[in-house]
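User: quick one, fold this
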Amino acid sequence: MTTLSTLWQPASGCGDACRPGDGPRARTWTAGFRLAGMALVMLAGIPAVALLGSAAVRWLARTLLAALGVKLVQRGPVPRPGSLLVANHVSWIDILVLIAVSPVRLVAKHDVRGWPGIGTTAGRSGTIFIDRTRPRHLPATVGEVAEALRSGRSVAAFPEGTTFCGAEHGRFRPALFQAAIDAGAPVVPTSISYDSTEAAFIGQDTLVDSLLRVARVRRLTITVITAPALRPMPGADRKALARAAERSMGGHGYRLAA
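Assistant:
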């Protein structure tokens, strides 16, 4: 039987078997250089973010991706301020990607707050943290997202509620779509695709394990595609809006990038 807990804490069927580990590997010194580069960027960038706030957050996200050897490709219309970006979820790297491509506030699980570097970057960008162990807090979270949208801030969320390997995906949970309806804000379906499943943050992964694995990938390209905005009418049905967002991503989302 479906319960509020399973709706609020969805489970992914993806696991370690989704990553064959047979892709081209970077040389050991390259992986080490990338990790050292990320450490240096965080040492230099986090104090800058603390002083400059959101002005430095996008720079930090882009620089961390570059240090990790990630090529970022962006396609589609630029979302207008005050939009709700809804994206599929593959990896912790998605957080850096969305901050890098657009000035957004993120909706992320509360665990992220404690992650070194990533948590600081997310926090300084105004991330709205969700505690999925407390579903009664959901209305307050929806209200906070709606208020941010009304103020002209764009917000990015992962309505699948958990990560998938990229070739697989989950249904969009409709709760956060209510914030766009309440605020009269456009919804921008945003697909994030990777050309390697090694980046997928699934199964029993830890942040350190995932970081080491990604650093060893010879080349990693992440493609972000924004679809035309959906503009919900007052009183629209959030479930129908969630399904419409899924359908609009069907032509280019949820697949490994070519």
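User: anything notable?
Assistant: The first strand starts at residue 70 and ends at 75.
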